[in-house]
Amino acid sequence: xxxxxxxxxFILTVGMIISKILGLFYVIPFYHIVGASGxxxxxxxxxxxTIFISIATAGVPLAVSKxxxxxxxxxxxxxxxxxFKSGALIMLLTGFVSFLILYFSAPFFADMMFSSKxxxxxxxxxxxxxxxxxxxxxxxxxxxxxxxxYFQGHESMGPSAASQLVEQIVRIIFTLVGAYVVVKFxxxxxxxxxxxxxxxxxxxxxxxxxxxxxxxxxxxxxxxELLKQDKGTMDISLKEIYKEIILYAAPFVFVGINNPxxxxxxxxxxxRAMGDTSFARNAFSILNFESQKIVIIPVSLAxxxxxALVPSITxxxxxxxxxxxxxxxxxxxxxxxxxxxxxSLGISLLAEPIYTVxxxxxxxxxxxxxxxxxxxxxxxxxxxxxxxLQGINEQRFTVLTLLVGLLIKLALNIPLIKMLGTQGAVLAxxxxxxxxxxxxxxxxxxxxxxxxxxVFRRSALIVIFSGLMWLGTEIVYKFLLLFLSxxxxxxxxxIIFISAGVGxxxxxxxxxxxxxxxxxxxxxxxxxxxxxxxxx
Length: 536
Fold this sequence. Notes:
Elements: H1 2-25, H2 27-57, H3 60-72, H4 77-112, H5 121-135, H6 141-153, H7 158-185, H8 190-228, H9 238-256, H10 258-274, H11 278-307, H12 310-318, H13 322-349, H14 351-358, H15 363-372, H16 375-391, H17 397-420, H18 422-447, H19 453-480, H20 489-514, H21 516-521, H22 523-532
Helix pairs in contact: 1-7, 1-11, 2-4, 2-5, 2-7, 2-8, 2-10, 2-11, 3-4, 3-6, 3-9, 4-5, 4-6, 5-8, 6-8, 7-8, 10-11, 10-17, 11-13, 11-15, 11-16, 12-13, 12-16, 13-16, 13-19, 14-15, 14-20, 15-18, 16-18, 17-18, 19-20
């Protein structure tokens, strides 16, 4: 049973990581199709959409899976089926209502971004168009989330992972092909190209939903057989069912909308601080789309590994197993730091060739990415600490951390942007996240009775290793700059490959030599060393 659960968690984690990686790297060709103005327009629509979709679906798969798994474990299979049947109708209804709200409120969201009524009306009209294009996805995504949760409740993670991948692949293909055809063949406007690209969210969701329907068809005999084994001793009303679902899902709504709300603050305050100029629009695109896409690359990997430990944390906490709980928390924080710190520092160090390879050689883009990259550590730490709060049943504090972080961001964003330019928005984000994380850590310390002393000691070792990696990488990087230019895409790619490769070897060697990797990842490292015939 335990091995099946771990296998399922691994499948879901790998699926999530692959899906996110695909979602990150498509921005390279997309940027070259629509340019900086197009990516800025794209991001204008995605921030309100992400907030709506997070409220509508955040926590739904987990809440439904937790509910179904709970009642399946006691043989009450009909209860989960009852939730699924009624939930399907409710999710379709709420999805359609969410679509209508976002569609008709699009002019309001577009207008909020500009401080002066005298500014060009075309901007508002363009943003309204792309917001309305992406809003169609809201019709499908909530219903799809319910289906994913129902499969997960039966400890079947493959359908969720497969549907995520199909959704992402279909969305990316439609985005790139659609935008390219509009721009190159139809000679359409950038607004039309971006509208097609945002509508791809709806097409991708249809692809993911069809995948889930296929799995439902294949597994219907098994599901029906389970229903025949139903004990039928419990008759739970729909009111009680949805009360329980809301209690499960609510904390994840706040975690899910945290980053979109931070981006929304940038979206609604940036032009008030910078003015509506071509420079400001370019700077906003760099901040909220181009740099952000690169920064969350290490975040996706680290949180995938760390969040896989959360079920074990929950189990240890419920069973009052102090030793196991401390061990799991130690491992979660260490894996997070071990994977995120060197990657974030490496992106910061190699910001010039990385930004050039992804997009173009831009002084502002490079400067923003260099400052923004370390903030990725805070993104990852917030997600993991919030998940741990759920594991120790103190998820109510996620509301507090969300509000504190947002208030700090909102209060400081305009003053810091006026003082430091685009980097001021990055600093405001960092300060908001630091405040939220500090509260999360305090809650973990208090309610899990967790002592951070060991993590602090191990973190110091990871910082030292990262510093040595930074030094080695910088020496190689400076040497390569003597005869290679980071302003060239091809030469920049060579610089990244060699410099990052040297840094990775240094970091991997130090981790192996010290035994740190073995302590974090266990027997899997020994098997890897045997396959690679490494001796340390």
